[in-house]
Design a protein that fits this description.
Order of helices and strands: HHHHHH
Number of strands: 0
CATH topology: Growth Hormone, Chain: A
Number of helices: 6
Helix content: 55-70%
């Protein structure tokens, strides 16, 4: 666990020497960052609540036990490599966060089908994700930041689940991957507040 924590945190050490975005000190940008850090924290809490429901309902709680099924299903994490890179640029990282939020928003349809009794929570989460993505887009436009679009074809499409169990495991990994994505996005936003 310590090694994993070190590996996840290591890219942020390198960012200390990253070139500063010209906009990092602007008051509006700092307000945007702080507001959306809180928004990201709320979304993380909602994803954790859904993970808990999947764990309690289907007894799918331990990732290690399901890795072979994950490989079979081909569910991968939407990358945020632009938020780790040694050539970190705020506008590129924010563009990637925005686009990956849209990817995960679509992926939650699998969870919605599996947990119809939790439709309210899933739909609230999807709405929050859409709002966070829109906030990022609007802030970038307001500051005149060039946006980069990461095409959807870069992402693996959701697999066709051949059984109810595969759909359960797929939902488990969609939520687990989304939680990791949010942790990276949160660290990127927090890093930008410190520049």
């Amino acid at each position: 666990v310590l090694l994993l924590g070190t590996l996840l945190w290591a890219p942020w050490w390198a960012l200390q020497g990253a070139p500063l975005a010209e906009l990092s000190g602007e008051q509006d940008f700092q307000l945007f960052l702080h507001k959306n850090l809180e928004f990201t924290r709320k979304i993380k809490g909602d994803v954790a609540a859904l993970q808990s429901v999947v764990c309690d309902t289907f007894q799918l709680c331990q990732e290690e036990e399901l890795l072979l099924v994950q490989q079979h299903l081909g569910i991968t994490q939407a990358p945020l490599e632009q938020c780790h890179s040694l050539t970190f640029q705020a506008e590129v990282c924010l563009s990637q966060i925005r686009d990956r939020l849209r990817t995960y928003q679509g992926s939650l349809s699998v969870v919605l089908e599996l947990l119809p009794e939790h439709t309210g929570l899933v739909e609230t989460l999807q709405l929050d994700m859409a709002n966070l993505s829109s906030n990022i887009q609007q802030q970038m436009e307001d500051l005149g930041i060039a946006t980069v679009t990461y095409p959807a074809e870069d992402e693996s499409p959701l697999p066709t689940f051949s059984s109810h169990f595969h759909r359960q495991v797929g939902s488990f990994f969609i939520l687990a991957n989304f939680q990791r994505f949010l942790e990276t996005a949160y660290r990127a936003l927090r890093h930008l507040t410190q520049l």
